[in-house]
Design brief:
This protein is α/β, with parallel strands linked by helices and 403 residues long. Helices cover 24% and strands 31% of the residues. It has eleven helices and 25 strands. α2 runs parallel beside α4 and α2 runs parallel beside α5. The protein is globular. The mean pLDDT is 95.
Length: 403
């Protein structure tokens, strides 16, 4: 007999977990099913590269709710379960064991999938991407004094893994295929160089203009072969970005383009299906453009919008992109959406470790970042899109709140 639910949430990450909570908090009366490939209940994925690997925390401490919460709130859980297909006409979801469940509304929250290199030896033990708690625990288990760790890619995840490995006295090499500093494509050359120098000061080696050609070893990886030579390793973490997990949505006939296309209320091209989080290429009414953002803050807030949509509310996607990172003694928050070609304006001295950065284009602020300077989040957010001179932005005598 096919089980029937008011709402079926596909994807049990932070977005899926939050939308379930938000529905119940809004008084949604119908039954809910939460389906997730991860065997664990929803948890905060940012903790994987921070608390779990850096501090060795128990992954259970990162759970949104204890598993008992779901049963107590009439949420049927299907953890460790893949969805093989969705039939929008019949409003059914087929699970990997062949079971079908029927929905009134469905919410896709399947996130993104880490990219791999597709080179020989990638199947060797101790070659990892970082996607779930199992990956984080496996990576952390290989940390130790003198262990040789190679991180391929210099994005946020790669650098956070490098910092965590150094905190455990590993010998860390970050392998980059270009000659640019890490994060330069996001933050620009000056700030990218600042992050590179931060890691070098903490003992990380950068190998640039190095294409990874293979991994070698008997059963576990022993070396990374690159276009500029061989790097001996005990552990490899591949951090070269991620792609939205759109296969199930596309096969169901939903419109996709760098993710699943949704409106400002998170509805897809099928009115009975919504999509949120890393997966969703959503219409942002504040910025007047489509955005697909890979960050937990965005997933949580879009989950709340989706719950509002289902319960008859009118919340919409109307906020600026935001993300943060912690690496060594550097903590920062970034809001807006700048580009590497934007003008960079510094407020404060980078060498002090405490400063604010603004990005400008055509006279307007496109993004802002506070580094080890707190309590300015709302003020910086309010500046995005505002026309402010570079001189005024950089003048520390002008309070941030008066810019």
């Amino acid at each position: 007999m096919t089980q029937e639910f008011g709402t079926v949430v596909i994807g049990a990450g932070i977005g899926g977990g939050t939308v379930v909570e938000s529905l119940r908090e809004a008084g949604y009366p119908a039954s809910i099913a939460l389906v997730g490939a991860d065997p664990a209940a929803p948890y905060y994925r940012p903790d994987l590269s921070k608390k779990v690997m850096l501090e060795g925390s128990d992954p259970a401490d990162s759970a949104l709710r204890g598993e008992e919460w779901y049963g107590a709130h009439d949420v049927s859980t299907f953890f460790g379960t893949e969805v093989s297909s969705i039939d929008p006409a019949a409003r059914t979801v087929t699970l990997d064991d062949g079971e079908q469940i029927r929905y009134g509304q469905a919410i896709l929250a399947t996130g993104s999938t880490p990219r791999t290199l597709g080179v020989p030896g990638e199947q060797l033990a101790n070659v990892h991407t970082l996607r779930d708690v199992g990956d984080a625990v496996a990576i952390r288990s290989q940390f130790g004094k003198g262990k040789k760790v190679a991180v391929i890619g210099g994005g946020w995840i790669g650098l956070e893994v490098a910092a965590a490995a150094r905190s455990h006295d590993c010998d860390v090499t970050v392998i980059l295929h270009t000659d640019e500093s890490p994060l330069s494509s996001v933050l620009g050359r000056e700030l990218g160089q600042h992050f590179e120098e931060l890691h070098e000061k903490n003992g990380v080696t950068f190998l640039k203009q190095a294409d990874t050609t293979s991994f070698v070893g008997s059963t576990a990886v022993e070396a990374v072969e690159t276009s500029v030579g061989s790097v001996p390793v005990d552990l490899v973490v591949i951090g070269i970005g991620a792609d939205p997990t759109v296969e199930t949505a596309a096969s169901a006939g939903l419109k996709t383009d760098d993710g699943v296309l949704v409106d400002e209320h998170m509805r897809t091209s099928d009115g009975s299906i919504l999509a949120i989080g890393d997966l969703a290429n959503a219409q942002n009414i504040l910025r007047g453009e489509r955005l697909r953002i890979e960050h937990w803050d965005n997933a949580v807030r879009q989950a709340e919008v989706a719950a509002s949509t289902i319960t008859g509310g009118n919340r919409a996607y109307d906020w600026q992109p935001y993300f943060y990172t912690d690496q060594y003694d550097l903590g920062m928050e970034y809001v807006g959406r700048g580009s590497a070609g934007d003008e960079v304006v510094l407020r404060g001295d980078k060498s002090s470790g405490e400063f604010i950065v603004f990005w400008r284009r055509d006279g307007r602020v496109t993004a802002a970042m506070n580094v080890n300077v707190w309590d300015y989040g709302d003020e910086l957010r309010a500046l995005i899109g505002k026309e402010v001179s570079a001189e005024r932005l950089g003048d520390e005598q002008v309070p941030v709140g008066e810019l």
